[in-house]
Amino acid sequence: CMPNLIIMAPKDENELRQMLRAALYCGHPVALRYPRGNGLGVPQPTPIPTLPMGKGELLREGGDLLFAALGTMVEPARKLAERLSGEGISCSVVNARFLKPLDADLLCAWAGRTRGVVTFEEGCAPGGFGSAVAELLADRGLPRPLLRCAIADHLVPHGDQKRLLDEEGLGPEPLHARVSAFAKGLD
């Protein structure tokens, strides 16, 4: 709730570099979710490209569902969209990049083209990214069924990242089951 606070979460190591650079020069307080574990191994161009502040990135176009993903959940959302495409479910994928400010224009434009919205975050569901997207859609008068894929309101113990994601319902198989059921419920 801090005024003018920018909250960012990178999808990969290259975007982390861009966000660190942007945080240094943007003139606002910034919270940057530093990802845990190894990066994806993406190329890291030099010089570091400028990150457009408050702007998300459309990674995939689709007409059934909008996947709005934040941080380390962007790659699992992208992979799930590919998998569901083979099952006849077409998903748009947006790398939100920013929890605050949300890229309202991008998210609303793609939510308006789909039958439902799924948010993905490796953070707490209450008051998190999914809640912010729900508020945005309500404020813009875009009623869409919404599935929030996030961590329930409890402390997560330390441990292997893959195992913990599976236990929290954020691994590939639990996500596939939840999102498939959600999509079928929209018919």
Question: Can you offer a commentary on this structure?
Answer:
The chain is an alpha/beta fold. It has helices spanning 13-25, 74-85, 104-111, 129-139, 161-167, 172-185; strands at residues 6-8, 30-32, 57-60, 65-69, 91-95, 98-100, 116-124, 146-151. It has a 5-stranded mixed sheet with strand order 3-5-4-7-8, with helices on both faces. The protein is globular and about 45 Å long. The model has no long low-confidence stretch (mean pLDDT 94).
Major sheet description: 5 strands, mixed
Average pLDDT for all residues: 94
What is the N-to-C order of secondary-structure elements (H for helix, E for strand)? Answer: EHEEEHEEHEHEHH
**Between the first and last Cα atoms, what is the distance in angstroms?**
38 Å
Low-confidence stretches: none
- The rounded Rg comes to 16 Å
Structure classification: alpha/beta
Q: State the strand order across the main sheet.
A: 3-5-4-7-8
Q: Tally the helices: what do you get?
A: 6
Tell me what portion of residues adopts beta-strand conformation: 15-25%
Shape: globular
Tell how many strands the DSSP assignment holds.
8
Share of residues in helices: 25-40%
Keyword list:
187 residues, alpha/beta, 8 strands
Helix/strand layout:
Layout: E1 6-8, H1 13-25, E2 30-32, E3 57-60, E4 65-69, H2 74-85, E5 91-95, E6 98-100, H3 104-111, E7 116-124, H4 129-139, E8 146-151, H5 161-167, H6 172-185
Parallel strand pairs: 1-2, 4-5, 4-7, 7-8
Antiparallel strand pairs: 1-6, 3-5
